[in-house]
Amino acid sequence: MRNLLEFIINHSHLLLFLLLEVVAFLLITSRQSYPQSTVLTASNRVVATTNQTADNIAAYFHLRKDNEDLNAEICRLQQQVQDLQNQLEPLTEQPNDSASVYQYAHLRYRSIPAKVIDLTTNHQQNYLTLNKGTQDGIAEGMGVISDKGVVGIVGRVNERFALVIPIIHTSTHLSARILKNGHLGFTHWNGYDSHQIDLMEVGRHISVSMGDTIVTSGLTPTFPEGLLIGVVDKVRLEEGDNYYTIRVALSVDFHQLRYVQVLDNPSAVSMQQLVDSALVNNE
Amino acid sequence: MNNTAKHIIRLVVLIILQTLLINNLHWLGIFHPSIYIIGLLLLPATLSRTAELFIGAAIGLIMDSIYSTAGAHMAACVAVAYFRPLLICQLIQDANRIGTQVCSASIGTRQFVILALLMIVLHQALVLFLEAWSFDHTGWLILSTLCSAGVTFLLAWLYDRTQR
Q1: Angle CA(A125)–CA(A131)–CA(A135) in degrees, nearest 5?
Q2: In this structure, which long-range contacts are made by residues A113-116, counting pairs with CB atoms below 8 Å and at least 24 apart in sequence?
Q3: How far apart, in whole angstroms, are the C-alpha atoms of residue B57 and residue B34?
Q4: Distance in angstroms (rounded) separating the CA atoms of residues B65 and A247
Q5: For a designed S-S bond to A175, which of A26, A123, A217, A221 qualifies (C-beta 3.0 to 4.6 A apart)?
Q6: How far apart are CA B93 and CA B127, in angstroms?
Q7: Which of A122, A163, A192 to mutate to test the interface with B (most CBs of B within 10 A)?
Q8: SS3 A154
Q9: A20 with B53: Cβ contact below 8 A
Q10: Which residue of B has its CA nearest to A57?
């Protein structure tokens, strides 16, 4: 017993060092199984507020660029309104069943505009912080897009801020489709180049070539079908491989990302309930 | 200026610089310098080892919450806080020469360079490897460690020059 006490006293620094390292490793491993630990969100509020203040100051330096972007967006939207009115006109004249189908497709997703107040692009696990939270109607699991394409999924949310896990996060896998032939795959980020992403599980019998458009599949309630993810940049097929190695150039430039829209799908909950009840019945 | 206040202000300034400046620069995706470690590196050599370990853990946790890296910075900072006093004892044979300041003027240029390089590379390597949590891209991580540590060392060296 005395020997043990002496050992502890003689090696107190080593033991404290090991104890602190064990705590750190527990934090790291808990993050691996559950990416957004509670430690992170508790303090993220402080960090997010600091970042917002810094961002408010920095915002003055790119007002001109922001104005140009907003103008471009207004022009695009005006064009879209015009196009939709043109589409709507023949439908309103002769109301029939197809009109209600169109209406349904538009109403399914509600979009909430938000501003990016903090983002990382140079880590393995990147995050975005948005200036909107539960009080603006944002909930976990909602899809996030920008005017250029898919950005990511809301991972964690508190009253005022939302933490988004972007597609450039090593544990994000998004169901995707090759637009020209409809074949499915899923996205995977290699962790290094924030302009590129890999498309996995596309079999060798499928025809893929450079310049093909990759869009969301619409198989999950998070994103509607056909949202732009990127364009095929490189296709490789090794001898004996069953699957292509496809490099996709992302349509969203994360370095310049400032404004996004969060997609709220009101039918997502009922869809999930249906799936859950089916799983319970199977057991 | 009061020595304690000087150390605290230096740490706070470095953490703010790290968060608001370094974190927002994207240097080819390969430079992730952790400049705040300079504050830990230059703590007084006479600091109690227990206090140093707790300071290291606290700074690590702060950086983890800023970078959303849960534990990687903490593990690296604690390692630096543990090995720094051991290395200082090894480097300086003449016990009388250990002053409170850790700088090239008081411990010698060669000793300071060895100490700074080893601690910065140790810290940088731990942060990057623990954050990646795999050995899939070891070559890339080693390159990134060396580039980032180089930048941090250069800053530590320049800071040391200004203190002469």
Answers
A1: 115
A2: A113/A259, A113/A260, A113/A261, A113/A262, A114/A138, A114/A144, A114/A162, A114/A259, A114/A260, A114/A261, A114/A262, A115/A258, A115/A259, A115/A260, A116/A257, A116/A258, A116/A259, A116/A260
A3: 15
A4: 32
A5: A217
A6: 31
A7: A122
A8: strand
A9: yes
A10: B20
Cβ–Cβ contact A62 with B under 8 A: no
| Token digits of residue A114 | 């938000």
Inter-residue contact A138 to A113 (CB < 8 Å) = no
Any alpha helices (H) in B26-108, and if so which ranges?
Answer: 37-41, 49-67, 72-91, 104-107
Query: For A238-259, what is each residue's pLDDT tens digit?
Result: 888 888 889 999 999 998 888 8
- How many angstroms separate the CA of residue B164 from the nearest CA in chain A? 33
DSSP 8-state code for residue A175:
E
Partners of A17 on chain B (C-beta within 8 Å) are 53, 78-79, 81-82
Task: State the DSSP code for B73.
Answer: H
pTM: 0.60
Test mutation, A56, A125, A171, chain B, max B CBs within 10 A: A125
Prediction ipTM score: 0.84
Q: Tokens 């599949």 belong to which residue?
A: A217
Residue position matching structure tokens 């994103």? A223
A256 touches chain B (CB under 8 A): no
Residues A15-64: tens digit of each pLDDT: 889 999 898 888 888 776 655 544 455 456 677 777 777 777 777 777 77
Query: What CA–CA distance (Å, rounded) separates B99 from B121?
Result: 24
Contact A143, A225 (CB under 8 A): no
Structure tokens at A1: 């017993």
